[in-house]
Amino acid sequence: MVSLLPVGALAAPEPIRIGGSSTVFPVMKTAIAAYQKGGANRQVRFELKETGTSAGFRQFCSGKLPLANASRPINAKELKACAANGVTFLELPIGFDAITVVVNPGNTWASSITTRELARIWSARAAGSVKTWSQVNLDWPNRPIRLCGPGKDSGTYDYFNKAINGDEDNSRSDYFSSENDNELVACVAKNPDALGYFGFAYYQANAKRLKALSIVGPKGSVLPSLATVQKEAYVPLSRPLFIYVNDKALRQRPELQKFVNYTIKNGLTLVKQAGSVPIPSSTYRLVESKLHQKVSGTAFGGDIPVGLTTSQALQRSLDSIKKPEFR
User: Fold this and answer.
1) Given this model, what pLDDT does residue 327 score?
2) CA proximity to 199, closest of 277, 100, 278
3) Which of 92, 150, 154, 250 is paired with 61 by a 20 to 30 Å CA distance?
4) How far apart are the first and last CA of the chain?
């Protein structure tokens, strides 16, 4: 958890509590730091936690959290929980991510990996049986494979397993897991036989300690990068990132409204500074419109949009503002 409290602050109103995705965490941390640099904004208190997308949605849909970071759209179970508690919300896409598969720099045998090989490693049926690199690819050495990945509360876990294994719950469990991506970075960086996956920003921040593998998919062998995500070449592991804002809290708390307005207005810069992939600037105006017109609800119907291109996923999220009542 990062508590960002201004120096010398008086006993003040309730802090703005933000939780959820560890992938979106660096973006929100960057947004808070930039926001607090300006005059009176230094007095606004924040409580920022990286708990994983699913854990964030549990708190958000119970009404305890006014702002949730998410690396996937809200799912059907979470929608029911929000509805049961009278929580309505705005779903705001803020950027894109490339789930990055990494190995230790001491790994001399792997530079790319196919989606089929990833499934061979990570599917539930691999548990207890796929233990060496040679079991994944016969050209790789008969060395133990040490796996490092997100836990079940992570949106990265959900999206990766849906994209690679066909179902968000289809994953082996016999690996080192954590909701803290820095722990996953350390897990891979310390072991020459390790392989892991997490958000692109954490790879970028630790590029000297890690080696990214190119993913062999429908567009050939492609490394994750800002360019390959924006060109829709890095498939199927590109995905949209979101913040979810409690509609009632947004209307009742001026300090929350001001901060969310600032974050969305400056989102292109903040997302890039945090190491994630910005939404195309030509489209980003629609995200601002979605906030200003207070368009509530989800555009994904409880589904994870694997199989959509980044532009298709973004378009779906923004289609609602084109309806007559919001024009």
Assistant:
1) 42
2) 100
3) 150
4) 40
